[in-house]
Amino acid sequence: MITGNETAPVIKTVPGENAKKIIEKDGSYLATTTKAAPAAVKEARGIVFEDVDGNIFFDFTSGVGVVNVGHCHPEVVKAIQQQAEKFIHFAGTDFYYSVQAELAQKLT
Length: 108
Description:
By secondary structure, the protein is α+β, with helices and mostly antiparallel strands. It has helices at residues 17-29, 62-65, 74-84, 98-107, and strands spanning 41-45, 48-51, 56-58. The chain has one domain: Alpha-Beta Complex (Aspartate Aminotransferase, domain 1).
């Protein structure tokens, strides 16, 4: 299990046997995208993630910009849980809701 405090990657074989199976299934059922790294993510904490074969990587993509505080930051997880109890998502272009307006106010 990773903690998010790892100081160096731990890389055995990439892709490992478990990742190869996932990559093959992905190729059979999903549209081709820009996946360049042959790593199948199992879990992530902070800036590191572990793949299904036990390799540990630094996530230099930061989840493509959506996890700039790191994966599974406790405060973010708590906020997501609290929000999910109310509603998951509404497009701000379709409906008004206070959280969006409050965030916009804080950003200005």
